[in-house]
Design a protein that fits this description.
By secondary structure, the protein is of the alpha/beta class. It binds guanosine-5'-monophosphate (5GP) and manganese (II) ion (MN). Pfam families: DHH (PF01368), DHHA1 (PF02272). It comes from Zunongwangia profunda.
Length: 338
């Protein structure tokens, strides 16, 4: 799909100086890896490129090269609005709808810049001038690699760019184990290691930097695990009180949902995390096989994502949310029952 546009995009890039690159709210490894990789690539080409993230991201991503240049919209609204206003091109990476940018949505909608979407989520919205969407891709980072490849600039991938792209592919594929991991993913990753991504160090920097309180919060989450064998479903709840008691920091619950899915015979897992400040329960869904959590999250929890990994939210109390969730399972008995 990007082939037909690549000449036009090349022409747009040759005209533009000011470029803004945006990840989704609650940026993860793929969102930060892809935006920072593209920032380095465009800066090296001589553009004035800025990454503006809607809000903060976890500490385990703060070692990423270029981290110190990221502008956080929530914290520097005025500066960010000025930069967005001057942007000639805005890249939106790793999300499919401007509503996923939180409070930044308005400023983006007001912009006259050329929008380029690079994303691997289902059902992309129609806001971009150029939409590079491929749901078969493991990650947006893998797509940024192909984007650079199609600009015939693979030789411009520096160790910094390679490290950023490697990080997003690694985190979005659960360290290369999800079914989205293809032979091509491994080819891309092999090339990134050759181009200077220190794979073992990156893994340590992301996964082996736990605090005691985070591991103890995992203990609480696992104690709260509920298993419903009838519908091959497992879910975890974490209340605001439990978060507070364990010095919760952004990103601390990353990956917890996968423990439910690691149970033998379970095909659907969820985690419900209370956020009193926003007045919501933030939910992550995961599945194995054909049960589409994207469809489920869209239909019932104002969310979306991929077939096997999606998110959503509830504005009800934790108790009511769980009651509602359990009530929905029988509707999917064809897919959930063995
Ligand atoms: P996570 O559960 O790790 O936050 O997200 C899993 C996947 O679903 C990610 O690709 C993420 O971008 C997407 N996702 C998470 N929350 C939402 C949401 O509220 N709405 C939509 N459309 N996608 C989401
Ligand atoms: Mn992603």
């Amino acid at each position: 799909m990007i082939e037909q546009y690549i000449l036009e995009i090349t022409a747009e890039l040759s005209k533009a100086n000011n470029i803004v690159i945006v990840p989704h709210k609650g940026p993860d490894g793929d969102a930060m890896g892809s935006t920072l990789a593209l920032m380095h690539f465009l800066k090296d080409k001589g553009h004035n490129a800025n990454v503006i993230a809607p809000n903060e991201y976890p500490n385990f991503l703060k070692w990423l090269p270029g981290n110190d240049q990221v502008i956080i919209y929530d914290e520097s609204k005025k500066l960010a609005d000025d930069i967005i206003e001057k942007a000639e091109i805005i890249f939106t990476l790793d999300f499919n709808d401007l509503s996923r940018c939180g409070d930044m949505q308005q400023a983006l909608e007001a912009s006259e810049a050329t929008f380029i979407m690079i994303d691997h989520h289902q059902e992309p919205a129609n806001y971009a001038d150029y939409t590079y969407s491929d749901t078969s891709m493991s990650s947006t980072c893998e797509m940024v690699y192909h984007f650079i490849e199609r600009l015939r600039a693979k030789n411009k991938i520096t160790p910094e760019i390679a490290s950023c792209l490697y990080t997003g592919i690694m985190t979005d594929t659960g360290s290369f184990r999800f079914s989205s991991t293809t032979p091509n993913t491994h080819r891309v990753v092999a090339d990134l290691i050759e181009k200077g991504a220190e794979n073992s160090k990156i893994h340590q920097d992301v996964f082996d930097t736990n605090s005691e309180s985070r591991l103890q919060l995992l203990g609480v989450a696992l104690q709260n695990l509920k298993v419903n064998r009838q519908f091959r479903t497992a879910y975890i709840t974490i209340s605001q009180e439990e978060l507070d008691a364990h010095n919760f920091k952004k990103g601390d619950t990353e990956g917890f949902v996968n423990y439910g899915l690691s149970l033998d015979g379970i095909v659907f897992a969820a985690i419900f995390i209370e956020n009193k400040q926003e007045g919501i329960i933030k939910i992550s869904f995961r599945s194995k096989g054909d049960f589409s959590v994207n469809t489920f999250a869209r239909a019932h929890f104002n969310g979306g994502g991929h077939n096997n990994a999606a998110g959503g939210r509830s504005e009800m109390s934790m108790n009511d949310t769980i009651v509602e969730f359990n009530k929905l399972l029988p509707e999917y008995k064809e897919q959930l029952q063995a």
